[in-house]
Amino acid sequence: MGLDIGSSSLKVVQLRRQGGTAVLETYGELALGPYAGGEAGQATNLPADKIAENLRDLLREANVTTIDVGVSIPFSRSLLTLVELPRAKTPEEQKTIVELEARKYIPVPVSEVQLDWFIIPDPISEGKELSPKVKVLIVAVHNDELKLLQNVVQGASLESSFYEIEIFSTIRSVVDEIVKPVMVLDIGASATKVYVVEHGVVAFSHNIPRGGQDVTRNISSSQGFSIAKAETLKKEHGFSTQLAPPYARESIESVFSHIFEESKRVFTQYEVGARTPISAIVLTGGGGVTKELATYAKGFFAADIHVADPFARTQAPAFMRPVLAEIGPEFAVAVGLALRKLEDLG
Ligand SMILES: Nc1ncnc2c1ncn2[C@@H]1O[C@H](COP(=O)(O)OP(=O)(O)OP(=O)(O)O)[C@@H](O)[C@H]1O
Ligand SMILES: [Mg+2]
After folding, report:
1. What is the dihedral of CA 207, 211, 311, 15, to 10 degrees?
2. Which ligand is nearest to the CA of 39?
3. In whole numbers, what is the pLDDT of the chain averaged over residues?
4. Atom 12 of ligand 1 has which residue's CA nearest to it?
5. Which residues surround ligand 1 with Cβ inside 6 Å?
6. How far is CA 298 from CA 59, 73, 203, 292, in A?
7. Weakest-pLDDT range from 27-36, 126-135, 241-250
8. Which of 8, 169, 292 to mutate to test the pocket of ligand 1 (most atoms within 8 A of CB)?
9. Rounded to the nearest whole angstrom, what is the distance from the C-alpha of residue 184 to the centroid of ligand 2?
10. In this structure, which ligand is nearest to the CA of 284?
11. What is the pairing mode between strands 133-142 and 113-119?
12. Same fold for the domain at 2-76+143-214+249-344 and the one at 77-141?
């Protein structure tokens, strides 16, 4: 099972391996808002016991039968930095260099975080000497955050085999292109995670503090509708022009234009710095379900735009395909976690 602990809802996906394929057994989502005295679709900041209570309800509703789980770590609670360091002669030496250097980039004592790092593979250049520098992706997560996640897992009587920063899970479930850079926009409730993936590695990442809840609040405050009514209107209309009443369209547009303008800056900055064009953009997260969002996004970027379809990597009954394709973006993190779980089983 993959478990995505988002700020607005929990999502679970249970997969089973059959031959070489991943079979979808069940999936489900449960909003956290009502557990915090608020509305569905709004971001929350709940303690572990409240999240565990929601999780127990979700596991029951979704008929989850396994207790073996991989869990997401929010990008907003982690630190990812790409740095260039001297190349060492041995892996042991490299480890020492990375651990010493990491201190410079982590704003808290190293003892307070879990540290991990990856060496970015050099582009294949036959006959050329290796450069004296290596690019290293340094990843740190605060111990407090891991403790919270562990308490949630324990509170729902599950057994976790790994924790993974959500963007790595999403890459596994939605990014096809390995070689050319792809930009992913995970539009969540409270924030949009923007990152560029090249050679399967996160080459750049950025957080935009805007998401689906801002759209709903805009509709609500501009029209004096309740949050619940605004949320329903948003999901019903999105950018589908023939249906959208003008008030909804304006409220939706002001949030997405901000998100896309800022993403465009990231896009251009990356292309100029890396001297490589970004080949495609993938829209994911609950905001990615917004009707006609890809059409609206086309006005901002000179690249192919796709809406994520993570369930396409799983086997499911044909009659479920349309609904899985529609809700897919919300489950990208959970599917990616479950896929890793299957890979780890070998
Ligand atoms: N059909 C839809 N149309 C428009 N927006 C939608 C639709 N379905 C869900 N959303 C919005 O997506 C948001 C939730 O997205 P998601 O589940 O990816 O967030 P999260 O993972 O809980 O949050 P975060 O990633 O920021 O922690 C909510 O604001 C919700 O209103
Ligand atoms: Mg999310």
Report:
1. 80
2. 1
3. 94
4. 286
5. 6-9, 41, 74, 188-191, 211-213, 216, 231, 234-235, 238, 285-287, 289-290, 330
6. 38, 31, 23, 10
7. 241-250
8. 8
9. 13
10. 1
11. antiparallel
12. no
Mean pLDDT of 285-308: 97
Crossing angle of helices 246-274 and 212-223, rounded to 10°: 150
Asked whether the predicted pLDDT for residue 210 surpasses 90, the reply is yes
- The CATH number of the domain covering residues in 77-141: 3.30.1490.300
The count of other CB atoms within 10 Å of the CB of residue 254 is 14
2-76+143-214+249-344 folds as Nucleotidyltransferase; domain 5 (3.30.420)
pTM, full prediction? 0.95
Element (H, E) at 127: none
At 162-191, the pLDDT tens digits run: 999 999 999 999 998 778 999 999 999 999
DSSP state of 130: P
Ligand with an atom nearest the CA of residue 191: 1
User: Atom 4 of ligand 1 has which residue's CA nearest to it?
Assistant: 290
Which residues are in the CB-under-5-Å shell of ion ligand 2? Answer: 6, 188
Is the model's pLDDT at 46 over the cut of 80? yes
Mutate to test the pocket of ligand 1, among 4, 45, 289, 296 (most ligand atoms within 8 A of CB): 289
